[in-house]
Amino acid sequence: MRYISTRGGAPAAGFLDVVLEGLAPDGGLYIPEAWPELSSDELRAYGRMDYAAVAADLLGRFAGDEIDKSTLRHMADDAYACFTHAAVTPLKQLERGLWLLELFHGPTLAFKDVAMQLLARLYDHALGLRGRTATILVATSGDTGGAAVEAFRGRSNIRLVVLYPHGRISDVQRLFITTPEEDNVHVIAIDGVFDDCQAIVKSLFQDQGLHNAGLSGVNSINWSRIVGQTVYYFTSAVALGAPHRRIAYSVPTGNFGDAFAGYVAHRMGLPIERLIVATNANDIMSRMVETGRYARSPVVATQSPAMDIQAASNFERLYFEGVRHEGVDTARAMRAFADTVVIDVPPSAMTMIRGLFRGAGIDEAETARTMVATHHSTGELIDPHTAVGVAAARRIGRAAPETPLVVLATAHPAKFPETVLAATGVEPAPPPQVLALKNKRERIRRLPADLGAVKSVVREVMGV
Ligand SMILES: *Cc1c(COP(=O)(O)O)cnc(C)c1O
After folding, report:
1. Ramachandran angles phi, psi of 211, nearest 5°
2. Which residues pair with 405 in a beta bridge?
3. How many domains, the chain?
4. How many CA atoms lie within 13 A of 93 on its CB side?
5. Cβ(229) to ligand 1 under 6 A?
6. Which residue's alpha carbon is at the smallest distance from atom 8 of ligand 1?
7. How far apart are CA 118 and CA 60, in angstroms?
8. Helix, strand or coil for residue 362?
9. Which of 208, 274, 437, 455 could form a disulfide with 248 if both were Cys (CB 3.0 to 4.6 A apart)?
10. CB of 112 closer than 6 A to ligand 1?
11. 48-53 contacts: CB < 8 A, separation 24 or more?
12. How far is residue 93's CA from residue 96's CA, in Å, rounded to a whole number?
């Protein structure tokens, strides 16, 4: 399996290089040259396999001959052993035809764990084969940082540096990042907002000296994270009757990684009837789907902070698919967006996109009302991100009345206890992952939002 860049200006690369590099050298995102396709019999067989076995099988289709089957199986078993539900990502029925797909049974209670646990094993394996070590730098708006710390702590060939905006993430999110004791984990609180952290990380990635010394990233554009997120579309769809039946999904969306994984599953032959792009007030992706215009507005703070994003990195992959792999066109559109903050998606690309996607932007009041109504009618407490997905599912619905509609439940309500309590009057009971954080010492270095200051800490960590 070969991977090409969405900007058409980089040589094709193999799977392990794509895992280690993240971004292509021309600034584009990697995508497979051709989609692997599954037959109906192969899909049906997934119904008789456990989650880790499906994950290993899917990964194998993207890794080609670069990793052998037994190694993949071992990685997947190991990655999902730390999940607290035997099904890894269980389905829960809310009402007739409407389901939650619970993606929050991992160590940090958000769906980022599902792919990050797998990525860490792939990364470790790739570094081992290349005889290399790496320093991974992550900027987080809350959930990615904790997932990365859990996945990479204690690995001898990896150092991890996490930047988060001081005072702007929930207490539970912060404790997942700051309490691990392993000394390969380094945490920096930045006096600024998430965009400041992101800008510093992007500048450091462009530093050729640091790149040569092994600095790299695991953000949501890393192709192996997308692959890890396709797995639960397959397991859930097959459990609800695919390939015989079509299934619709509503996906709480920020960087468009999770929703794009649904598109990938669809291209691989999974009969997805509809993908609903559910956003909060930061609605750049849902507006694009509805109007054909991808236009950035200022970021506003919401109750669902993991989706407070106004430039969805994975949109570039969808655009590239929409313009039938025209790298030159994609590069031109992305460069123009950097200047004008607008892309008008060509009509032929919109025809492809509208064939599968619908979009809905959910405001703060509707998010809170949805938490209340869901608790009232089903007894389930849902987190604010999941509530955006449920609200969008109710607004848009499925195309055919008999189609099961599945909402991706992206975080555990106990990860956002204040918000859930404020909306519903009920405090979610803390699961063991949260109780274990009590009375632990935090290790944080606090720095101004200054590139030079962060760079010197990163150099110190890397020993260069
Ligand atoms: C990251 C995240 C999202 C958004 O996922 P994307 O892949 O960035 O679209 C939604 N909900 C939660 C809880 C998250 O952590």
Report:
1. -60, -45
2. 98, 248
3. 1
4. 6
5. no
6. 255
7. 13
8. coil
9. 274
10. yes
11. 51/80, 51/87, 51/88, 51/89, 51/231, 51/235, 52/76, 52/77, 52/79, 52/80, 52/88
12. 7
DSSP-assigned letters across all residues of 142-160: SHHHHHHHHHHTT-TTEEE
The mean per-residue pLDDT over the stretch 273-299 comes to 96
Predicted model pTM = 0.96
Domain span including residue 311: 1-464
Instruction: Give the integer Cα–Cα distance in Å for 367 and 303.
Output: 8
> What sign does the CA torsion over 17, 20, 25, 26 have?
positive
**By three-state DSSP, how is residue 161 classified?**
strand
Query: Of all helices (H) and strands (E), which one includes residue 337?
Result: helix 327-340
Q: How far is the CA of 307 from the centre of ligand 1 (A)?
A: 6
Report the Cα 458 to chain-centroid distance in Å.
25
Per annotation, catalytic residue among 69, 112, 202, 440? 112
Q: Quick check: CB of 254 below 6 Å from ligand 1? A: yes
Is residue 452 within 8 Å of residue 149, measured between CB atoms?
no
257 lines ligand 1 (CB under 6 A): yes
Please report, for the domain that includes residue 224, its CATH number.
3.40.50.1100
Burial bucket for residue 102 (CB in 10 Å: 0-12, 13-18, 19+): buried
Helix, strand or coil, per DSSP, at residue 287: helix
Distance from the alpha carbon of residue 190 to the mean position of ligand 1, in angstroms: 21
143 C-beta closer than 6 A to ligand 1: yes
Closest-CA residue, ligand 1 atom 11, reads: 410
Element at 187 (helix H, strand E): strand 185-191
> What would the pLDDT profile of 298-345 be if each residue is shown by its tens digit?
889 999 998 988 888 899 999 999 999 999 999 999 999 989 999 999
Residue 90 CA: distances (Å) to CA of 7, 86, 258, 259, 397? 37, 8, 17, 18, 22
Instruction: Return the best residue to mutate from 116, 258, 412 for the ligand 1 pocket (most ligand atoms within 8 A of CB).
Output: 258
| Residues 123 and 101: beta-carbon distance below 8 Å | no
* Whether residue 112 lies in the annotated active site: yes
Q: What pLDDT does 21 receive? A: 87
Position 249: which residue type?
Y
Q: Is 102 in the pocket of ligand 1 (CB under 6 A)?
A: no
Q: Out of 144, 410, 416, 420, give the residue to mutate to test ligand 1, the one with the largest number of ligand atoms within 8 Å of its CB.
A: 410
Residue 141 reports pLDDT greater than 90: no
**Which residues are 189's β-sheet partners?**
164, 446
